[in-house]
Amino acid sequence: MKNNFRLIQNVFLPVLILLLMIPAPAQARKLSPVEIEDQAQAQWHINYASYLIDIGKYFEALEQYDTAIDYSPVAKTRVNAMFGKAMVLSTFLDAPEKAADVYRVVGRNYPDYADTALYRLGFLYYQMNRYDRAKSVFRQYLRHFSSGKFKYQAEAVVSSMKAKEDLKPEQKPEQKPTEKVPAKIGKEPTLRVCLSRKVETMTVTTGSGKDQICTDELGCGRKYKVGMSGKRLTLDGKVVSAARIKFKSKGSLNVSYGSESKKVRGVIDVSIRKGKLLILNIIEIEDYLRSVVPAESYASWPVETLKAQAVAARTYAYYQKKHRTHLFYDVYADTYDQMYGGVGREDKRTDKAVKLTRGQIMLYKNLPILSQYTANSGGFTADAKAIFGAGKDYLIAQKDSASLKGKMASWTRKYSRKDIESKLKKIGISVPGIRSISALEKGPSGRIVKVRIKYKSGFRDLRTRTTLGSSRVLKLPDILLRIDKKGDYYTFKGRGWGHGVGYSQWGAAELGKTKKYDHILEFYYPGSSIKQLW
């Protein structure tokens, strides 16, 4: 019994490692030049998806995986992307059943990978504490793949579940829910805000001449410099035995690293990770919001708008805290998550908005929502499923007239045919002699999800956001657009700024003139509700 549980633990803990456990196909065929380009594109998007997961952009990661699936001519690469997509759905987007559907699709359409897909499906149900389903899937695995790659792991799981069933009721361990259910009203949570993980030195000083910085057993002072000596931390040039140093003060702290400097509340926590300093600001969530809200909204906007932004930003941070428990941080201190500038970014008007909404979180079916927001919806919010490949009931396409009254509502970009060909060529896509660019697929909001480029040798179908309109190519602000051709020039006339999903910041600025903050939030996140958690 102990050996079975040890085997299960050794196999299940490194969940992400399973993404690499894909058997090689029976044989590989030679790819054409166009297929080689497509394969390179697919692998780039898979790698970029991993980066997006790391910075908390889970929907955008799905979009990259779908792009890889579209482009790759290689079954193994498509399956790798599908497994990555399933992991994001189950781990970060609270959508395990959608992940299960992905595994079933792999099992049906890719026979060479059916054993891996079936094993992962059983493992997914095991993680969800749905032991009857898990046992059924693992037994199916053992029937169909009696000599399969995961035979011993499947046998160990089935054995462990049978042992649990044989226990007397009073001996059975309590099953913990797998859902990330919000805590009851209670203590305000703290956040681990990642300031940097790319530098080798940092300096911390007191926010005022009256305060001291204390470092627990390392004493107190007014200024400290942290560096590295191999794998050891140094404090003011001397190697210390501590694996991490925490700097505390009754007042604020000034921290400088690389070319950046911030005045922050809370604690500065420094350690070494992957050969660089990991600098965290441990801060209560309400103090964090005092800096974030004025960075995400103009402090001059209506107070109801600022209150809506405060709740949306708080909900986003809380969601990330609940979903990054296995990582060393909760949020980044820049636009990867939410812009955090420290004390210097705070404003009295936004402080008031944060205080008036203290502890309020947006929930959908008793779970915190992933509160997506965009600069301007262009008059029509986008459906998350159409944009990212997976949706939420509270992230739908709907008319948003208020956004058309705000800034960044419309724009125009003009490029020559040669310019477009050159920009695509730089990322490895050859379309010499472009003859037309037209919409191939649109979402419910009218956004052009895919385009077809006809050129002298044929045509290429590209995802608009991740390829043609991406920051690597045309840098289009949104994909709610019209494409016009005149001579050798293409004009992209568009509305909106960002992905268009969820809360429109300029739309909220207009709504806040006449509507309360709860109305604004319920409009942009339909079906959700506000709940007081602390």
Description:
The chain is an alpha+beta fold. Among the domains are: 2-171, Serine Threonine Protein Phosphatase 5, Tetratricopeptide repeat, CATH 1.25.40.10; 410-495, no CATH class. It contains 16 helices and 26 strands. The strands form eight sheets. A six-stranded antiparallel sheet has the order 7-6-5-2-9-10, with no helix packed on it. A five-stranded mixed sheet has the order 8-11-12-1-13. A hairpin with a 5-residue loop joins strand 20 and strand 21. Helix 3 runs antiparallel to helix 4 (75-91), helix 4 (75-91) runs antiparallel to helix 5 (96-109) and helix 7 (131-144) packs antiparallel against helix 8 (151-166). The two termini are 43 Å apart.
Beta-strand share of residues? 15-25%
Q: Tell me the number of helical segments per DSSP (H or I, 4 or more residues long).
A: 16
Strand tally, please?
Answer: 26
| Euclidean distance between termini CA atoms | 43 Å
Lateral arrangement of strands in the main beta sheet = 7-6-5-2-9-10
CATH class of the domain at 2-171: Mainly Alpha
Flag low-confidence runs. 1-21
Helix content: 25-40%
Give the radius of gyration. 26 Å
> What overall geometry do the principal axes of the alpha carbons give?
globular
* pLDDT averaged over residues: 90
Instruction: Report the biggest beta sheet as strand number plus sense, adding barrel if it closes.
Output: 6 strands, antiparallel
Find the CATH superfamily of the domain at 2-171.
Answer: Tetratricopeptide repeat domain
Instruction: Report the CATH architecture of the domain at 2-171.
Output: Alpha Horseshoe
